[in-house]
Amino acid sequence: MLSEVNFLAAFLVGLLGGVHCVGMCGGIVGALSFGLPESTRQRPLAQLPYLVAYNGGRILSYTVAGAAMGGISALAMHLLDVRQAQLVLQLFAGAFLILMGLYLAGWWLGLARVEGLGARLWRHIEPLGRRLLPVSSAGHAFALGLIWGWLPCGLVYSVLIWSLSAGSAAQGAWLMLGFGLGTLPNLLLMGVVAARMSQWLRKPWVRRLAGAAVIVFGVVMIGRSLWQFA
């Protein structure tokens, strides 16, 4: 039950944070499309394999990072008392869900500050991505997605910090996979469809409703944890 709630909440965070994702990664997707042969650029469906490959690589990077963070939490559980570690991790997850909900609803933007955490690492990775441009094949696009999946992004890093509470590498990967899939509609569906979806996601009531839903997930998780370990 807990893993399903985490997956759904992470998916909502990715989906409702889609406007932010377009701002961060939309230029990269545009550069990818612009570098394709002219005959491919003129046919939107012909670009689809490249976009799928790019986003597949990006989401794989998210999933691997989530597995690493979940593995760290699993190690902590082995080093500490398991029952106490589970309680701390679940309370941490619930609290972070509440912060995520506040962020999505636009009531508190403090999570965006974690973006600077990966700036130093990105300075070493970013040149590798530039070498792959222009993209000449779906394999190229996949490799580019693997690299750009590490782009400094407050939303991604916030979910990564949340995945520290997963308790295992598999659960951490599952959580980040849910987030990555949530980001797909805004980055995979280009043109009119993406524009309309972004316009809908910008509506204050939509963001507040989604934020409130994620906050409820967090409160329920904290309540269940305290009840279970009482």
TrEMBL record:
Q: Does the keyword Nuclease apply?
A: no
Cite the Urease accessory protein UreH-like transmembrane domain residue spans from the record. Answer: 9-220
Q: Which domain of life is it from?
A: Bacteria
Keyword terms? Membrane, Transmembrane, Transmembrane helix
Q: Where are the transmembrane segments?
A: 59-80, 87-109, 141-162, 174-197, 209-227
Under PANTHER family, the record lists: HEAVY METAL TRANSPORTER, HEAVY METAL TRANSPORTER-RELATED
Name of the protein in its database record: Urease accessory protein UreH-like transmembrane domain-containing protein
Q: Which organism is it from?
A: Thiohalobacter thiocyanaticus
